[in-house]
Amino acid sequence: MKREEHFEVGDTGQLHVVTASSDIVLKSGEPGTIDVVIEGGESAINLFDIAHVGDLVSIRLRKEGARRWLQPKTSIEVTLPPDSDVEIKTASGDVFGSVDTRDLDVATASGDVRFGDIAQHAKIKAASGDVSVGVVSGDLFCVSASGDFRADTVTGELSVSTASGDISVGEAEGRTVAKSASGDTRIGRFSGPSLNVKSMSGDVIVGLAPGMLIDADIATVSGSLRNDVSPSDVEPTMPAKLRIKTMSGDVVLR
Fold first, then answer.
1. CB neighbourhood size of 54 (10 A)
2. What's this model's pTM, rounded to 2 decimal places?
3. Which value, to the nearest 10 degrees, does the dihedral of the CA atoms of residues 121, 210, 205, 150 take?
């Protein structure tokens, strides 16, 4: 069964979603409107309260629904304007967004999180799910227990912590902290003021932007260290601190 709602908002909107086990899909729509579609059993979809105030649309599973969540799993699809603010809390559902957001705040226990570009800031918590984002034009903070993390570009501060997942960043332009117990850490191009990587058994591979003046402190107990940085004609003018520590992983600079 399907429940559909349509709301008029400004050029950009705000979306708050609180649910238990629903998968959530966000799609890019036209400025000025937010459309909500909830699919599932009739009793399940009617356990959601949907409210609209100004530019804000909130979707919330009522407490009695969370306590007796025995109905078939529901799915929530929201079409909203680009550059909207999004806040989502779900226990076990996946969260996928093909819309570029402004501020993003997502917390899920066991679901995957995948989003496109983020115009300002992002905060993501996922216990066992994978996390993937595009270009973040601000700060990004992510905590994941066993999932992998991937970002194309982060222009602001980046802080990523995962227990057993891999960390992969195409380009990091700000202060960067990456912590992983057993996963590998790969940063394609680093050009920020400081990089701090800690890993127990994962490998660390970092590509350095030309023209960097590095203050390095690199330590590995049983792994190897290899410097593959090519000579550059660019005068070193960008000071950066590099702190990399791993127990048994290899460290490669490029």
1. 9
2. 0.91
3. 20
pLDDT(154) > 50: yes
Amino acid letter, residue 18 = V
pLDDT at residue 66 greater than cutoff 60? no
Report all structural domains of the chain as residue ranges with CATH numbers, in order of start: 1-99 (2.160.20.120), 112-254 (no CATH)
What is the rounded distance in angstroms from the CA atom of residue 32 to the CA atom of residue 9? 5
Whether the Cβ atoms of residue 136 and residue 118 lie closer than 8 Å to each other: yes
Burial of 102 (0-12, 13-18, 19+ CB in 10 A): buried
Mean pLDDT of 250-254: 96
Residue closest to 194 by CA, chosen among 217, 167, 210: 217
DSSP letters of 38-80?
EES-HHHHTTEEEEEETTEEEEEE-HHHHHT--SPPPEEEEEE
Tell me how many degrees the CA angle 142-143-148 measures, rounded to the nearest 5. 85
Q: Is 249 exposed, middle or buried, given 0-12, 13-18 or 19+ CB atoms closer than 10 A?
A: buried
**Gap between the terminal Cα atoms of the chain:** 54
Position 69 scores a pLDDT of: 47
Confidence of residue 34 (pLDDT cuts 50, 70, 90): very high
pLDDT, tens digit, 9 for 90 and up, residues 165-175: 999 999 999 99
